[in-house]
């Protein structure tokens, strides 16, 4: 689940272990009881306390933070440590009470769990009440229960998963979502239930549906035209992108669109495509692909084999070859 992967990530950060957290390396810097004014452990400000800390063999905050950033330190950030992770580690040195227990959940505005084998978006994610960006790419998610998504989400990236439909995601979608990334999934459609409309995504600015199995361009455009705030759209890699008038039809049908398939839509292109939206008959439901194979190496020549078999009195041997094209 997502929450299990998140907790594993927290353990990897070592927020409660040296040089972070509370321990013999810094305990005299913090009061034993909670400060009534700040609601957290307060720092001692008298110089005598600092001298005593040195006598006890404790490290200063500056030294502990340096251990987290020095490239030669055993506690240096790894190659996959994000700026947010490093900030949390430094907070665990300077204000360890803020990253203890459930407090740490309130510090996350962005969460990135990529390639961790996650299958379930569980309700534990709701503990991240300040979360605005959730990236769950390259996992094994087939269903997304929207009730388990924080309502504060503005970015949801689900690229390279196994999502087949949007029904569960659209039950209670985050109302402020601005980007929805569903590229490299198994979506077909558009669905009869019209899940790609402003009824579900009123604030959507960016939508990535690339490399799925969308074939009905007219049906998809009828839904996307209701997304009044949509400015960025990615549809490349779908069968409908093979239609000759594909780009021009979209440019004219969605006049507020600024970028299509990572290519900016300029005034000249919009002028050239003017009127295509009123000619749906140009959008064909079929496409023909011609593939020419110039040369094949490493297999016997069938014509030579057939001649040898004709001249030979031995039992005939039949060869068959299968050529597969994946689009």
UniProtKB/TrEMBL annotation:
Organism domain of life: Eukaryota
Keyword terms, alphabetized: Leucine-rich repeat, Repeat
SUPFAM superfamilies for this protein: Outer arm dynein light chain 1 (SSF52075)
Keyword set includes Cell division: no
UniProt cross-references to InterPro entries, sorted A to Z: Leu-rich_rpt (IPR001611), LRR_dom_sf (IPR032675)
Gene Ontology CC terms: cytoplasm
PROSITE patterns in UniProt: LRR
PANTHER family assigned to the protein according to its UniProt record, in alphabetical order: LEUCINE-RICH REPEAT-CONTAINING PROTEIN 51, NISCHARIN RELATED
The name this protein goes by in its record: LRC43 protein
Organism name: Crotophaga sulcirostris (Groove-billed ani)
Origin organism lineage: Eukaryota, Metazoa, Chordata, Craniata, Vertebrata
